[in-house]
Amino acid sequence: MSSPLRRAVETRSVTALHALSAVPKWAVFLAVLAVVVGGLLLTGLAALLLLGALAVFLGWLAYLAWPALAAGQRVLRLLTVLLVAAAGIARFTA
User: Fold this and answer.
1) Which residue has the higher pLDDT, 53 or 2?
2) Structural domains of the chain, count
C-alpha cells in the first residue's frame, strides 16, 4: 500500500516522466555528464547549484523506483545521491 505522499508524487511525475522517456537515452546521458563535469570543474555557488540539481533529480528518480528495487539497488541509488550532494558541498566550499 502506498502513502498519500507517494501517490501525489507519482501523479505529479507522470508528465515529466513521459517527456523524459521521449528524449533519446544518449541525450539524457550527455546532459547528466555535462552537469557532472561542469559541477566538478566549477567552484562556489555554480557548482553547488549544478550538482545540487543533479542530486535532486537522481533522488526523485530513486524515490519513484524505490518500491521496485532490491536492497542492494536501493543502497547504490542512495549512495549515488549522497555522493553527488557531497561533491556539490565540497566544490561549494573549495
Assistant:
1) 53
2) 1
